[in-house]
Amino acid sequence: MPLRINVRMLLATGLIVLLTACCLLFVAVHSAAAGTPVEKKLSFTCPFPLIGLQKLEAVIKADFEVPTAPGGTLTTSGLTITVTVPDKAARGLNLVGATTVEGTAAAGVTLVNGDANPFPVRIPLNVAKTDLPSSGSFSTVATGSVPTVTLAKPGKTTLTVGDFTTRLTPKKADGSFTGIGAFTSDCTLDPGQDAVLLSFDLGGAPAGRHYAVAGKTAVKALGATAPLTGTFDLSATSSTVFSGGPVFDKAHTDFRLYGFVPGVADLEFVAEGPQGGDLIGTGFVARPRFTTVLPLVTLLGMPVSSGPGCRTSSPSTAELRTGDGFTMAGGGTLTGAYALAPLTGCGAFTPYLSTFVQGEGNTFDLVLTPRKP
Q1: Are 311 and 357 in contact (CB under 8 A)?
Q2: Which site in 24, 135, 298, 337 is 20 to 30 Å from 184, CA atoms measured?
Q3: Distance from CA of residue 107 to its chain's centroid?
Q4: HSE of 39 in the Cβ direction (CA atoms, 13 Å)?
């Protein structure tokens, strides 16, 4: 008699694992469109002691949001996996006194984005607490939060099912464990099925982006800050490189030499040569190259230099990085530093003015807001 009871307990254990093994799937779909609800049925096999290999089918539902260009994100919402449990399992669980079953799971999928190396993704799931009937079939439902993934490469992008593991706990009516306790089992996708969960072609480069610029620049040696406005246009030349950069309006700053001599200065940042940078994740690094022109400088209300000839003797190159939360579609912060070379062409006061302008530690603090071209 004890041996017969142990066999029943193992049978119940095997059936429980089998029932929820498929609850570990990521959403299965081909060529999903953004915002498209999807539904697919797949079968899996689980090996169990004494009862051997068992098969089960699961219905998977979810919504995909697919990016239109590299640098965008792949998101999934509404993930549910429903498994219909046969009467045989309910009767087996009743034999060990179980009235509910619940647990967790972990599914593995492999992401391949363009020519990038395969990237494994682990998806945690929760198997909801489910009441067990005294007889007849019943359904279990698993849900989970699928991590958002940034797709940086162009080309074919796929998600393919891999291994998965489940850990389940049947319980009695008073919440205590049954004789079989909590248990873990591994399952595999049945052969002959398409293991690709998601497949689509990602465009070769992001669309051109156009931003309005607002912010400030600080000239460290002068101890002054100048408000900035302008535009920033970029056009991707590949999946990782763009051309374009900031174009600033003429800026104006008030300053005090030695803390008490009042002065004013106009600033212009004139682009030198091709502009561009690198696309990184959801943002970018820009490396604008420019000459700084001081068309007007006054001290105590008297001009000490005027005209476009007053400028840095060699161009500057800034490294401007987008901040946390920046997206190509929504914009965000852009900051960086630059150095200023000695001045030239400022007349008799050139050496004097240079000492208050040249040097490192100058900064840009900008905010980019999307605009129509």
Answers
A1: no
A2: 135
A3: 20
A4: 2
